[in-house]
Write a structure and sequence with these properties.
CATH class of the largest domain: Mainly Alpha
Largest sheet: 3 strands, mixed
Distance between the termini: 89 Å
Pfam families: CBS, MgtE, MgtE_N
CATH topology of the largest domain: Tetracycline Repressor, domain 2
Strand order of the largest sheet: 1-2-3
Helix content: 55-70%
Protein name: Magnesium transporter MgtE
Subcellular location: Cell membrane; Membrane
Family: Belongs to the SLC41A transporter family.
CATH architecture of the largest domain: Orthogonal Bundle
Radius of gyration: 29 Å
Number of strands: 6
Oligomer: single chain
Function: Acts as a magnesium transporter.
Strand content: 5-15%
Number of domains: 3
CATH superfamily of the largest domain: SLC41 divalent cation transporters, integral membrane domain
Length: 462
């Protein structure tokens, strides 16, 4: 058999299907017969490929792709998209399709989508649910946005502490169609208070007449009001499959699955990464993000940083005479502000991460400042000493001394302030990533220039 006679490989079929689909979507007047052929190819693609296509398509094209998919695959593909992307698709899909996809989602995923939609559309979708789904979705919707209750599933399996293994398994079989996960099984009292937890595997391998209380372990749980990111990170560190969620009275109201915890942490990391770069997170794939949303994610930060730059201008204006007396000093201003800002942001990023992991708490602020002060001092000695020798060789010993001393003080100050800022932000209820970096940049730039010119005036006698 020649190579031309070999059947196409799965990868070849994927490439051809994507090429044909892209050509069909770009056709301003697509042939209905061609649509049937493309839909057949689309149905053979792995679901991951379909999701990738949706994430790279405009809302109108993505809606067309969803309509060409079998219902079950369309529901799975829609559910896998980010909430902001789903929101954009809602306007391009028919009301029936949106209601269909919305009804098939988990309660916490529905709430994420509702948060992205205009109020009138959100209300219409909520009213399209049957009574049971409406009740569970409304329950999750009632919790604060940054609480773990907002991410839990109220469809939680549970067994009674007074049951035997046989009775518990029968109860779980009856609940199976209405729960998100069944592998972690909370044990409750008659009034739904959480008293223990066991696993489906433990129950399956035990004799049917063994009391459930003999098989349960002490429960690790979270309250509905607990902060979502901190709880999710703690949960993932414990390597559990699911985490029971209780109300303030200890009654079981939901469960947090492992994948939902991963989503919380991923969103938080995306947010921190974006804000450390002076932008807001997009919350959807880049290629499907409207240009106006890209602008909106950046413009506020640019305005804040531009206004903070006025403080630097004020400092330069104050020391205008000193700068005029030794113009060479102006050459090193970018070096000082850049080094100071980077030192402070390094410290802030490290402490923000430590706060998220629970390695550092608010009461540790002085210990953190002391450690960062020492780290900044050593960094200042290394950088200051190196630049003092290097610049002293080219510009004279006085300039080298000025730069060396300034870097020593600025690095120490920047690291100390950078370490303290995330903890201060946490204490006042602000996002450490939002509060820390702009403040550090503004403070270190201004303070660094003041230190620089004061040292220069003392050394040069100007």
């Amino acid at each position: 058999m020649t190579s031309a006679q070999h059947p196409p490989s799965p990868n070849d079929r994927i490439v051809r299907a994507r090429r044909d689909l892209d050509k069909f979507l770009r056709d301003p007047d697509p042939n209905p017969e061609r649509a049937e052929d493309v839909a057949g190819q689309l149905a053979t693609l792995p679901l991951s490929e379909v999701i990738d296509i949706l994430e790279r398509s405009t809302p109108v094209r993505a809606a067309l792709v969803l309509r060409m998919l079998p219902r079950a695959r369309a529901i799975l593909a829609f559910d896998a998209l980010d909430a902001a992307h789903q929101s954009d698709l809602v306007g391009a899909l028919s009301d029936d399709a949106v209601s269909d996809y919305f009804g098939a989602m988990e309660p916490d995923d529905r709430v994420s989508l509702l948060d992205e939609l205009p109020a009138e559309i959100a209300q219409r979708l909520l009213h399209s649910l049957d009574e049971r789904d409406k009740d569970t979705t409304s329950l999750v919707l009632g919790y604060e946005k940054n609480s773990i209750g907002r991410h839990m599933s109220p469809d939680v399996p549970m067994i009674r502490a007074g049951q035997t293994v046989g009775e518990a398994l029968a109860s779980l079989r009856a609940q199976n169609d209405h729960v998100e996960t069944i592998y972690t099984v909370p044990v409750v009292t008659s009034d739904h208070r959480l008293v223990g937890v066991t696993s489906l595997r433990t129950l399956f391998t035990a004799d049917e007449d063994v009391p459930v209380v003999d098989l349960m372990s002490e429960p690790i749980s979270a309250t509905t009001s607990a902060e979502d990111e901190e709880t999710a990170r703690r949960f993932l560190a414990l390597d559990l499959l699911a985490l029971p969620v209780v109300d303030d009275s200890g009654r079981l109201v939901g469960i947090l699955s492992n994948d939902d915890a991963f989503d919380i942490v991923e969103d938080a990391d995306d947010e921190d990464t974006a804000r450390s770069g002076a932008a807001e997170p997009l919350r959807q794939p880049y290629l499907t993000t409207p240009v106006w949303r890209l602008v909106r994610s950046r413009v506020v930060w640019l305005a804040v940083l531009a206004l903070s730059g006025l403080l630097t201008v004020t400092v330069l204006d104050t020391f205008e005479d000193a700068l005029a007396s030794a113009v060479v000093l102006s050459l090193f201003i970018p070096l000082l502000t850049g080094t100071g800002g980077n030192t402070g942001n390094q410290a802030a990023t490290t402490i923000t991460r430590a706060l998220a992991l629970g390695d550092v708490r608010r009461r540790d602020v002085f210990a953190v400042m002391w450690r960062e002060a020492r780290a900044g001092l050593l960094l200042g000695l290394l950088l200051g000493g190196t630049f003092s020798l290097l610049l002293g060789f080219f510009y004279g010993p006085q300039i080298g001394l000025i730069l060396g001393l300034t870097l020593l003080i600025v690095c120490t100050l920047a690291a100390t302030v950078g370490g303290a800022m995330p903890i201060l932000a946490k204490a006042i209820g602000a996002d450490p990533a939002v509060f820390s970096n702009p403040f550090i940049t503004t403070f270190v730039d201004a303070a660094g220039l003041i230190i620089y010119f004061l040292i220069a005036k003392a050394v040069l006698g100007i």
